[in-house]
Every structure is written in structure tokens, then in C-alpha cells.
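FORM 7B - TANDEM STRUCTURE REPORT

SECTION 1: FIRST PROTEIN
SEQUENCE AND C-ALPHA CELLS:
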Amino acid sequence: MVYQPTKLKAFLDQLNVRPKKHLSQNFLIDQNILDKIVRFADLKPSDLVIEIGAGPGALSEKLLKKAQVIAIEKDRVFARALLRLDHLEVLNEDVLKVDFSTFKKCKVVANLPYNITTPILTKLVGYANIQSITIMVQKEVADRILSQPNTKDFSSLTLFLQYHAMLKKGFFVSRNCFYPKPSVDSYVLQLTLHQKYRIKRAEEFFQIIRKCFQQRRKMIKTTLKEDFDRAHLEAFFGKRRPENVSLDEWLTFFQKIPAQQHNK
């Protein structure tokens, strides 16, 4: 029960470690939140769960009651300590270097390190064997991921994740639910991966979107005027900026442009 503050601190003292800020080590100390994460992940006994950043193992203990669990933990001390939990397989690895295709069909559950949230998500959505990703992220990042067109939070990350997954809102988690207490609040959300959108030249498609969001205050027709036929840009986008265009509209634009209308 390392979610209890006194027991967590005693456990850390026993290991002779302190939470490492550069690894975003902020540990949950709220049993209610841990239970809500497990329920939200919607697990069955036959599921394989890949837990990223298991730390002391508070969430691991809860997950093991519901499914088979493999924990990925970069910190060597915590990885060794996790071996105390029966039936838990532990990988002492950097998650960005793990090949998830070696696992059978699985669900990912994670309190993601906030400093590398985007690289991790970008990596995970590329694996066909991952069914869902239930994650806790910084509230500000969650706002971006779950945002809608015509809002300030709508971004290239939003569009990228919408392309790969159905996004589901979860619940707010106060900064007071962690030890040590971080400077930001968090939010739990879920991505259910799908194959709904699969286009040729997908990388080129997202390069175009990222280019527009890098100059998000400019109209799209201005940003892309050297890349595409200007009349076509005017007809499709008018005076709109990137945050005003939905994923389906971006896809329609990209797929309907005849090759001769590229000015590259």
C-alpha cells in the first residue's frame, strides 16, 4: 500500500532514494484516483497491460488484481523494488527504446513522465497491437489533446492523435494527490486506437499540418502559398487559420489535390 503517504515515505527511505525531478517522479498517494484509473482502463482477466513508469508500484498492485501486467520502469532502483510484487514482469528500460510490437495484443496504462509525454504518445499510436492507452497527463496537455476546432488549444497534436485514435475524456486529478506535489494539475484520458483513417503519404500530410500550426496566427493560404496552387488554397480555406480546420477537412484537402497543383 505504497499510495499511503507515510508508507510511501518509509518505502523510499528503505530504498535510500528520493524522487527524481528530471524523471518526473511524482507518485500518486490517493487510493480513490488509483481505483478510478483501473476502472477507467476497463480491464478483463485475459488482458495484457503494459504499465509505463510504475515507480514504487502503487498502480501496479491495483492492476495485478485485474489483468496480467508488464511494468516498464527506467529507474533501476524502482525496477528492482517492483520485483517484490507477485506475478509482475518488470522491464528496466527506457520506454522510448522499447519495441512494443514484441508484445501480444495489449492495453497501455500509464502515469506518463510529463517531460516526454508527446514523444511517448507519438510512438505508441504507431503500434497495431495496442488496443487502448489510458494515461495521466498534465492538465494543459489534456486540454490540447481533447480540444475542438476553433479553440486556442486545438493543435497539430490534437489532429495527429485524432487520426490514430478515438479520444475519451476521463477525470481531473489535483496536484495534491501526488508526492512530491508537482506545480501542475493532471487529467486522465483514454485513446482507443483505430484504423479509420489510413492515407498514402501520411508523413507528408502531418508535415503540412505542423508547418501551418508553427505559424498558427497566419492564414493557411499564406503559409502554404509556396507549396500548393494558390487558387485552390483560396477556394478551400478562404481566410481560415489552422485551428479552424477539422481533421476530416484536412484529409479532404490533402486527398483531393491533383498532383499538378503542388508547386514543389
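SECTION 2: SECOND PROTEIN
SEQUENCE AND C-ALPHA CELLS:
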Amino acid sequence: MRAGGLTSTTQATEASSGSGEPLHAGILAHTTEGAALCFLTFCQEGFRVIGPHLHPDVTLDCIAMGRSLPSWDRGDYASIRPVLAQSVDRLVSAGADFFVCPCNTAHLALEEPGAELALPGLHIADVVADRAVRDGRQVVGVLGTKLTMDGPIYRRALADRGLRHVVPPLQQRELIDRIIYEELVNGVISEASRDECRQVIEGLEKEGCDVVAMACTEIPLLITEDISLLPLLDSTRLLGVAAFDIAVGRRAVPSWRGGPVPSV
């Protein structure tokens, strides 16, 4: 034991996972605010489960999103995939055993056909959809960028598990998209935007939703349980905890290496 009751990393890991050394987690960042929250969640889960100041090794790599914005605007996901793959390659060099990407929209590019990524990755939409199933949800309202809400990522993940996918009307989808790109990814938190999001959630409740998936990793910075009419699925923190669980052997190492996701 060290001063203050701090156990060694090896002792703590064996106590929590029952196995040897933990895996090294890689975080493929695309937006900074969501990636930072995912990183903090991973580390804080270590503090909670293993002990003070302890967590498995974790490396975060971030190539500035601004380099890919013109491609996002053109809908050219194929040209973004190599940028994300470069981050994965750098995570390999850092010693990572697997990766997570705390950016829902980036999965549109990760799902593009291409060479296998250098590491296996955990798909964020599958993490969220699995939690919806465990919680007994049936109708999931999805909030995220317009690309995420309009795209196939959550439609596939939810439909594969027999869940219904609902998004807000077009005007509200555009509102959420603006809040994300003009405010949240820049660390701006507005009470006016929080109230607008609350009203969007009220609309989803009227559409029969029994839960809301915060399918943008910055949305949890703005929307919290205390202002939401519906329960929330926090994609950022769910992914951070899932990454920790993989690292300590409580969850299987993923096999997906980019490209289209096979149905479950």
C-alpha cells in the first residue's frame, strides 16, 4: 500500500477484472468537447472501480475537425475516412489495443468501405442501442447533428434490436444542428438553447418516445436529466464506460474495423 491507501495498478486491476494487465484504450477524437468528456468518463470510471487516481492506460489522438469540414459539407465521407484512419494508426503507435470514437457523426465516415482500420473499434450507436434494450425502451428519440439524425447509423442500430427510431421535424433538426456547430463544439452553453432543446424533447414525448438518445457527444454538456421530460441515453458517457469495461475485461474486445456494420 502507498500513502493514503492507494493500491498499485496491478493489484487494483486484478481486484476489478480478475485478470492480468488491462488493455490500452485509444480515443479517436474528432470534436474536442465530446472527446474530452469521454476521456474524463473513462478515467473517472477507473477512480470509481479501481481506486483513487487509477485507470487503465488511455491515449487520445485528435486531428483538427476543421481539416475535414469541407468534406462534411460536400457529403464526401470517403475522403474523411483516411483522416480518421491516420488517427487510428497513431493510436497503434502509442500502444492502444482498441479504439472508441466519441463523435457520432464521424461514424458515417468510419462506416465507409475501405481497408480495415489498424485497430478494432467499438461502434457508439451499438453501445447506445444496447443500453436502450437493457433499459426496456421501445421508441428512441434521436438528437444529434442533422447528418446523424438523417443518416443510417442509429436507424440500423435501433432497427437491428427491434426498436423504433424517431427524429424531430426538419426545422427542429436544423435548430439542433446549429446549436451543436455554432455553440457546443466551441464550448458555448446557452440557457436559451437549453430551453429550445427541452421543447424539442417535449415534442418527442408527444410522438411516443420513451427515451432520448443524445447522439452527439457534446449534447450532454447542455441537456441534463433535470430539464428533460424523458430519460436520456448519454452516448458520450456510455461510450467512456464501455471503453473502460473493455480495458479491464468486463466487456469483449470489439471486432469491427470500419466499413459497413453487419446486422446483429
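SECTION 3: OBSERVATIONS ON SECOND PROTEIN
The domain at 125-234 is CATH 3.40.50.1860 (Rossmann fold).
Residues 1-18 have pLDDT under 50 and may be disordered.

SECTION 4: SIGNATURE
Preparer initials: ____
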